[in-house]
Design a protein that fits this description.
The chain has 680 residues and is an alpha/beta fold. It folds into five domains: 2-63 and 648-679, no CATH class; 88-163 and 596-644, no CATH class; 175-274, Immunoglobulin-like, CATH 2.60.40; 277-313 and 328-503, Rossmann fold; 510-584, Immunoglobulins (Immunoglobulin-like), CATH 2.60.40.10. It contains eleven helices and 37 strands. The strands form nine sheets. Strands 16-15-17-18-24-23-22-20 form an eight-stranded mixed sheet. The chain is elongated, with a radius of gyration of 45 Å.
Length: 680
């Protein structure tokens, strides 16, 4: 039981102070005037002031409270390496037993799992949350059993007691890590991009040659192996093989004795993009559509256009000498023989045979397509004539033959049933809002896909693959009417953009493709096909397990499925005709970036609380009790600080000046002062 003197004024403190001023002023006046009973009156005033202050004796009955000691066990992924999980579990149990054996101690044990997503080890966050739920006045110490690798150092709490770190890793541990320090998300096709890699040997790495094997694989293909130096940055020039997503996997084979192979792989996903689209526009004769084609292509800053047009055909006889014409001879041989491979797309706009381009040049165009080039034919009346380019070596690659009929009537272009599934025309605005065209060349398709139709559903736009290249035929020269806004116009710009991207082989415009989009550990699998159904897709996880997914049609020509991958790494997707790869999550999660146990990060916080660091490979330190403010760690021991916390069981207050006693004392003192002064 403890006793303390407390005051509970009967009046506001301001009034009590005012009364004290009045009493002492009166006492001073009495002394100044020499009154014999002044000291008695002063005592009476003091008795009254003391009574107004409400003094009382407070007696408390207290009960001692146990001190609280925290044991925070790190159970994140890096703690499952080697023997750390077992060491951590045994140390936590043994430490709890040692503390439970001591009097007046409550042990609170908390485990720290992996952070959400790739957040890493949130050790101090858990410690903060635990401290927030406990009375700070009872915390006698905290023990962290961990490898010291954490990712929330900014959450360091203010501890009222010593903090200790028990390291689960061994001093002989070593690990090898592959780190890609520079990997852009995009790269221009045909131009090398430099990646920066570094292979780091961490911890007690064995001495060797200073070199390590490095395997490089693109899109899950067979890896190529190289010997590269360790602990040095390596600049690797790389040229992407194709547009769209390129999955590049770098792997360092696991060495004997290293902690984990999870950080031996770096998975880079880079998108290949074209810097500029080089287009050769070949116009047979000046017409309204020719200028529209030129303006559309020139309006795109990413297009380099070379326009070859025939302004003065050979049959024109106007008597003007050739030497006096203000025309520059076009380098046809250079374009169609020597530099034709430099072009991404060749457009023939109402071109016909006139003897200007020899058959040898046109044969070279056909070979250009078979080797991976792209040709677009915008057919006019010339295509149906005897001088049609169909009656040339280009006939081998064209998807339709002319019937010699030219249809001169208004019609509204429409998307065919197949076109509604083809990515070039799928999703275009409603055809009912499109303006009419006034001419169509009747053709007989011999290959390819008819995705747009015209008069009486006759073929209007035909796409075909020839060898490694692609060919498109537009059986009309009136697309320019849309550009002029005739009867509301139409989606000419969007159609041309999609058509060009399809001819360039852009993945998002492929009509027969297996794609995947990753978001964290989830992926959306997309199958584009012109068929009415899609085969199931099998997903092979990094651990070799296979999952088969059924595809659901979400829109014409597009089938989708959702998949969630537990493991982080490279996934292989395969159906009856396609195979692709995609990476989920980072190749090396934060938990495995650096795995050697260390006190580097927690050391300053431990020192601030006068705690200590010990390795569990030696032995579990003994526990001692130290006074607050004293060092709480030494050789082979760690300390906790008793807090002497208590709870109040009962409180009793006894007034020191009862009312009757105050009345009696004040009356007697005043009476004595009166008698003293009267006698004088």
């Amino acid at each position: 039981m403890t006793q303390t003197l407390v005051f509970d004024p009967l009046i506001p403190m301001a009034l009590l102070l005012a009364a004290a001023v009045v009493v002492f002023a009166g006492l001073a006046l009495a002394v100044w005037r020499g009154l014999a009973g002044a000291w008695l009156r002063g005592l009476a005033g003091i008795v009254v002031l003391a009574a107004l202050a409400g003094p009382s004796l407070q007696s408390e009955e207290r009960g001692a409270l146990n001190d609280i000691v925290l044991i925070i066990s790190d159970e994140s992924a890096s703690q499952r390496l080697a023997e750390r999980a077992g060491v951590t579990k045994d140390a936590s149990a043994e430490l709890a037993a040692l503390l439970d054996a001591r009097d007046n101690i409550d042990v609170v044990r908390v485990s720290v799992p992996d952070g959400q997503g790739d957040a890493g080890t949130q050790l101090l966050t858990v410690l903060n949350d635990t401290l927030a739920e406990l009375p700070q006045g009872r915390i006698a110490g905290a023990f962290l059993i961990s490898d010291g690798r954490l990712h929330d150092l900014e959450r360091a709490p203010v501890l009222p007691a010593p903090l200790h770190l028990l390291l689960s890793g061994k001093s002989a541990d070593w690990d090898r890590r592959l780190n890609v320090t520079n990997a852009p998300a995009f790269a221009i096709l045909g131009e090398p991009v430099t990646l920066t890699l570094k292979i780091e040997d961490m911890g007690a790495a064995p001495t060797g040659t200073g070199f390590a094997p490095l395997e490089i694989s693109i899109d899950g293909g067979p890896p190529q192996r190289f010997q590269v130096p360790t602990d040095a940055e390596i600049e690797l020039p790389l040229t992407l093989p194709h547009g769209g997503r390129n999955v590049i996997q770098f792997t360092v084979p696991t060495a004997e004795g290293e902690l984990t192979a999870r950080n031996n792989t770096a998975l880079i996903q880079m998108n290949g993009v074209r810097d500029r689209l080089r287009v050769l526009l070949v116009s047979g004769e000046p017409h309204a559509g020719g200028r529209t084609w030129r303006n559309l292509l020139k309006s795109d800053s990413s297009v380099d256009l070379v326009h070859f047009t025939i302004l003065r055909p050979p049959e024109k006889q106007d008597g003007v000498p050739v030497s006096e014409l203000s025309l520059i001879a076009f380098p046809t041989r250079e374009l169609f023989l020597e530099k034709i491979e430099d072009f991404d797309l060749i457009i023939f706009d109402r071109y016909k045979r006139r003897g200007i381009l020899p058959s040898l040049y046109l044969e070279n165009v056909a070979r250009y397509v078979e080797n991976g080039g792209a040709v677009l034919v915008a057919a006019g009346p010339d295509f149906a004539s005897a001088d049609s380019i169909y009656r040339s070596p280009l006939a081998e690659i064209l998807p339709a033959a002319p019937t010699a009929r030219v249809i001169e009537q208004g019609y509204r272009p429409d998307i065919s049933q197949l076109g509604k599934r083809h990515p070039v025309t799928a999703g275009l605005p409603d055809t009912q809002d499109w303006g009419r065209w006034m001419r169509q060349i009747e053709v007989e398709p011999s290959a390819g896909d008819v995705i747009m139709t015209g008069v009486d559903e006759k073929p209007l736009l035909i796409l075909n693959r020839v060898g490694e290249g692609r060919v498109a035929m537009l059986a009309s020269d009136h697309a320019w009417l849309w550009n002029r806004g005739f009867e509301g116009g139409g989606p000419q710009l969007e159609l041309l953009r999609r058509l060009a991207h399809w001819m360039m082989g852009e993945p998002e415009l492929e009509e027969d493709a297996l794609l995947a989009e990753a978001t964290g550990q989830n992926m959306r699998i997309i199958r584009r096909t012109l068929r009415e159904n899609a085969a199931p897709v099998s997903v092979t996880a990094p651990d070799g397990s296979v999952t088969e997914l059924s595809m659901t049609e979400t829109e014409p020509g597009r089938f989708e499925a959702q998949y969630s991958g537990i493991d982080i790494g490279l996934y292989r997707l395969r159906d009856d005709a396609h195979e692709t790869v995609i990476g989920l999550g980072p190749a090396a999660p934060r938990e495995f970036e650096k795995t050697i146990a260390t006190a580097e990060f927690l050391g300053p916080l431990v020192d601030k609380t006068r705690g200590g660091v010990a390795r569990l490979e030696d032995r579990l330190p003994t526990i001692r009790t130290v006074r607050e403010g004293r060092p709480a760690a030494g050789r082979g021991w760690l300390g906790i600080t008793p807090r002497a916390a208590y709870e109040t069981l009962s409180v009793r207050q006894t007034a020191l000046l009862p009312a009757w006693l105050v009345l009696f004392l004040a009356s007697m003192l005043i009476l004595a002062a009166w008698l003293r002064e009267g006698r004088r």
